[in-house]
Amino acid sequence: MAQTVNSVTSGVTLPSLGQVTTPDPYHELETKYIFGFTEGADIGAEGEKSIEFETTTASGLRGGTYAALEQEVEFESVPTQNFGYELSAHGLGFSVNDVPGMPDAHGANFSGLSAEFRYLVIGRGPGSPVGVTIVAEPEWARIDDGGQPITDFNMTFRGILDTELIPNRLYAATNIFYTPDYARSPGESWEWSAEYGVSAALAYRFTPKLTMGAEIEYDTAYDGAGIQSFQGQALYLGPTLHIQFNGHVMLAAAWSTEIAGHASGENFGLDLTNFPHQQGNLKFEVEF
Amino acid sequence: MRMVSTAVLSLAFVIGVGAPLAVADDAARVSVTLKDHKFSPAEPTAPAGKPIIIDVSNLDSTPSEFESKTLRVEKVVPGGGKIAVQIRPLGPGRYRFFDDYHEDTTEGFLIVK
User: Fold this and answer.
1) Cβ-based contacts of B90 with chain A (< 8 Å)
2) pTM score of the predicted model
3) Is A149 on the interface with B (CB under 8 A)?
4) Tell me: the pLDDT tens digits for B79-102?
5) Which domains are delineated in chain A?
6) How far is A163 from chain B (nearest CA, A)?
């Protein structure tokens, strides 16, 4: 890497000295996916379109064995400099044995559709050290987490804030979110439930293409759309990985383990009634 | 929930889609050319607080993609072609742009002051 002493971070030309530098290989990095389950505030550049394959796993519920794998295929577009959206189709594979309140089930099925609308309130960059984005994610599901038929409408509202603690190297983000859920199983009445959460993440760019970090997330579950009936809480901790192969291909992965929790009416150290013990996420994006 | 959802999505649509329409009025124009995969000028200037239109002329025979993470735009410039990129009002600073097909060698900075 041939760089002059005075322009290591910027890679600029210094015509007065007749010096020409090569650009800094640590270009700006889009933060949307570098924090794992926690989201970064970037929405992409106006004109971007991409296809994304996202796999989310969940395993470990109290009393039995439980594993689920959700596969999403997503189309993403950024029509303006402040607004982006995604449209997604979901499939779910599931294996449930002896989990209280869940029928034993094994199989895979088309599970629903969702969308995501992102509005960039403050763009991180020369004019602002922080980025702020608000997100609305409506979803329709036709089977529940255990593979049983259901009609479910939910919407996650998410607030995102991120910053660069060291420019183009060390990033930090925090999210707050609220997901009201309105669902009905066959032969039963409609019921509200809700989840609230907050998360924080750090990510360090070890090479221009490789970023790794860690995140922590606190989730709570309630019956009803508000906070009237507490059901449980869980604290997750785990590592994150992000590889930007080139300007058009990206891979991101995250793994989170419930390290503390409590379910209403139980005396265990984890809430494995409302939340899984392990969660994983893998994203592969191709921009075109 | 349906009313809330509709309101949020409508707001996002109006704000988001409406943004570029507002940029075109009284915009400052900046011209940049690409030749031999180099931007000229490499550091054009523009006034802060005003919408900006960057005219990019590609004098090379091969296509380029004008892109910037901080300006939040990307647009293909055909070989021998010209594009205009609308930018929202910006605060003072250095905003990096590059040719996405040659990012490691082809970059410039929009100096806003």
Assistant:
1) 126-127
2) 0.87
3) no
4) 999 999 999 999 999 999 999 888
5) 27-287 (2.40.128.130)
6) 13
